Structure formats: structure tokens, C-alpha cells
């Protein structure tokens, strides 16, 4: 530090604070949000903390200063401990008789309330799904009253509407027979989780579709400027606590499943959160195994946010490919799709 000028000393102080915050964020998945409400909010900032620390490494590297080691070591530790924010490469394996493809998509009610200046959102999404032809389709925020939607090209389906007026909910569509299905009700919210047991060849596969509590954040810049910070943090903390309750209900149901398992859905939280760690369990994150890029699934302006996931049991599936469709036109979420091979 003695060789640093005053400005660089100040920069290194800021660097130290942000590197410490990033290091702290690595243990957040082990803290229950109900007991560490405000601390858990830090999990949302992990992507930006990673990016900032990368910039610090580059800054000190250009200046040929050993201070680069602080952020570098924190980033290396996070890479091996929690995985990477950015994936290079990915993989693709040719389809065969044992291959199954799954798409997950939060369709934001098919724009039923005209958030987007496009009257054909339902039709466009239907045509998009038909063109990609996933064997199984999980939809969050499904709304049946948009007359332009058409998923009749699927042979089987399970739709569970929630809330007092039963206006919207989750849906699973399948090209394979559904032999069992059900819903996990979350209290005091229209969010819920559903499941369908589908049969491919001689295998029964449990497919879950989860939609955890929304954080209710208006991502528009002007709206965020008007938000009271303390109130916003309190609201997010309360949503995280509800997510924990919902996750615990889901995990109790998950324990009863004896089939090969795939979990899809919108967790409304990142891969650095408690709910992600608990729901994923010993399953594989298909993006981490076969994805590429940032894997951004939510249209947030400031930094890449991945809150939509597909998990698969690595003991029973080989993850062949993963794709995030960069579609900002039809929803505030991007569709994601993976192909798996059954063992």
C-alpha cells in the first residue's frame, strides 16, 4: 500500500469492501432468509459484484499492482465453490430415441393486461413453442383467457389455476402420456407448484413446475428512482421469507417422489440464494452443465439476472444441451430449453 498514491489507496479501499461483500455472498445460500432477511437481499447483487471485481482485477493488472490478487482470489474461490456467472462453450449432442427436450417459460399472462404494445403475444408464443417443438413445456403465469394461444399440438396437458378467482397459474404440456398430476398449494398467494408424471418408453419421469413468490420490483429506471430504499428492502426481505416457506412445502412433497426427476420453474431468485440451493439439492443445473454466456433469463436493465431454471437428476439423465432464447418482445422473462438423454 505504501507505493500507492492517494487515489489508488481510496480505490483499493472500495475494492476491499466490495471483495468482502462478494466473499460474504458465497455463504448466503446457507442462511435462512426468515432469520437473515436483509442479509439475504445481498444474493440479488452477486452478478454485479462479480462484474465489479473483475473490473478491479483488470484495473490493478494494467497498473501492474499486486492489489489485483484480492479480487482475483475471491473470484477464483467463487468459481470453484459456486460456479461461474458466465459460461463458455456449452455442448450439443445429437438426439436419439432416449432424448427428451424440456422448455420452461414465464409467459407473463400472455400480455393479457397489455403491458407490451403487441396484441399477438399469445399467438406469437404458441408459434414459437411449436417451432422449437419441446417434448415437455412448463409455463408459469399461464392465463387461459387469451384467445390467441393454441397449444393443441400437445397431446397431454395439466393446467392448475390459482388465486381466489382462478384466473392464472402454472401449466405443463407433454407429448408423452401424463399418468399422474397434482398441485402444491402455497398459502396467501396465487403462486404455486404443480407436477406431472409422464411416461416415455418404459420410464416414468416426474416433472415439477414451480413459481415462487415474486419480489414485485418495477425494473424501470424511473420507477426505481422513486422507490423508498428502506421500504423496497423490507418488501424484498418479506418475499424471500415467503419463498423459504414455499420451498419447504415443495421439499416435503419432493421427498415422496420415487421417479426420475426434472424441476423447472421461475424461482424469482438467483443461483446464489438459499432457495436455489435447497430446491436444486443434488440435481444438476442444466445451464451450468451445458449452457453458454450469462444465461440471463429476466429482462433487467442493469446486469444479467438468471432466475429461471431447469434441474435434472444427473444419475438418470445426461444433459446434452441448453439454450436461452434472447426474446425481449413477448415477456419479461426469456424461455429456456434443455435436451436430456435418459440412462
What is the string of helix and strand elements?
A: HHHHEHEEEEEEHHEHEHEEE
Q: Structural class of the helix and strand makeup?
A: alpha+beta
State the major sheet. 6 strands, mixed
CATH A-level architecture of the largest domain: 4-Layer Sandwich
Counting DSSP H or I runs of 4 or more residues, the number of helices is 9
Text of the CATH class of the largest domain = Alpha Beta
Sequence stretches where pLDDT stays below 50 over 5 or more residues: none
Radius of gyration: 21 Å
- How are the strands of the biggest sheet laid out side by side? 3-4-2-1-12-11
Q: What fraction of the residues are assigned to beta strands by DSSP? A: 15-25%
Helix content: 25-40%
Average of per-residue pLDDT values: 91
Distance between the termini: 56 Å
Number of domains: 2
The count of β-strands is: 12
Provide an overview of this structure.
Helices cover 33% and strands 24% of the residues. It is α+β, with helices and mostly antiparallel strands. It has two domains: 6-82; 99-342, Deoxyribonuclease I, Chain A. The strands form two sheets. Strands 3-4-2-1-12-11 form a six-stranded mixed sheet. The protein is globular. The mean pLDDT is 91. The chain crosses the membrane at residues 12-31, 37-62, 69-89. This is Endonuclease/exonuclease/phosphatase family protein. It holds the Pfam family Exo_endo_phos. InterPro entries: Endo/exonu/phosph_ase_sf, Endo/exonuclease/phosphatase, TDP2-like. One of its GO terms (molecular function) is exonuclease activity.
Amino acid at each position: 500500500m505504501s507505493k500507492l498514491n492517494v487515489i489508488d489507496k481510496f480505490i483499493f479501499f472500495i475494492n476491499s469492501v466490495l471483495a468482502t461483500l462478494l466473499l460474504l455472498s458465497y455463504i448466503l445460500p446457507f442462511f435462512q432468509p426468515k432469520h437473515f432477511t436483509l442479509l439475504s437481499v445481498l444474493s440479488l447483487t452477486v452478478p454485479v459484484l462479480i462484474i465489479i471485481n473483475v473490473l478491479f482485477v483488470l484495473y490493478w493488472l494494467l497498473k501492474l499492482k499486486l492489489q489485483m490478487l484480492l479480487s482475483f482470489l475471491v473470484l477464483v474461490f467463487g468459481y470453484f465453490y459456486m460456479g461461474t456467472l458466465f459460461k463458455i462453450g456449452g455442448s450439443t449432442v445429437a438426439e436419439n430415441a432416449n432424448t427428451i427436450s424440456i422448455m420452461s417459460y414465464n409467459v407473463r399472462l400472455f400480455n393479457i393486461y397489455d403491458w407490451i404494445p403487441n396484441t399477438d403475444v399469445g399467438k406469437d408464443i404458441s408459434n414459437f413453442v411449436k417451432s422449437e417443438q419441446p417434448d415437455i413445456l412448463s409455463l408459469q403465469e399461464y392465463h387461459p383467457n387469451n384467445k390467441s394461444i393454441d397449444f393443441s399440438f400437445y397431446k397431454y396437458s395439466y393446467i392448475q389455476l390459482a388465486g381466489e378467482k382462478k384466473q392464472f397459474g402454472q401449466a405443463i404440456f407433454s407429448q408423452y402420456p401424463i399418468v399422474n398430476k397434482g398441485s402444491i398449494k402455497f398459502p396467501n398467494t396465487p403462486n404455486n407448484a404443480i407436477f406431472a408424471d409422464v411416461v416415455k418408453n418404459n420410464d416414468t419421469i416426474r416433472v415439477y413446475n414451480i413459481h415462487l413468490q415474486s419480489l414485485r420490483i418495477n425494473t424501470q429506471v424511473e420507477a426505481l428512482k422513486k422507490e423508498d430504499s428502506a421500504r423496497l428492502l423490507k418488501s424484498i426481505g418479506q418475499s424471500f421469507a415467503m419463498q423459504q416457506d414455499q420451498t419447504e412445502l415443495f421439499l416435503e412433497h419432493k421427498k415422496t417422489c420415487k421417479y426420475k426427476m426434472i424441476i423447472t420453474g421461475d424461482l424469482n431468485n438467483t443461483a446464489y440464494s438459499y432457495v436455489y440451493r435447497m430446491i436444486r439439492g443434488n440435481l444438476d443445473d442444466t445451464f451450468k452443465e451445458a449452457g453458454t454466456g450469462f444465461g440471463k433469463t429476466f429482462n433487467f436493465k442493469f446486469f444479467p439476472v438468471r432466475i429461471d431454471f431447469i434441474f435434472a437428476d444427473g444419475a438418470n439423465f445426461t444433459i446434452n444441451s441448453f439454450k436461452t432464447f434472447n426474446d425481449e418482445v413477448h415477456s419479461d422473462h426469456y424461455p429456456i430449453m434443455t435436451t436430456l438423454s435418459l440412462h
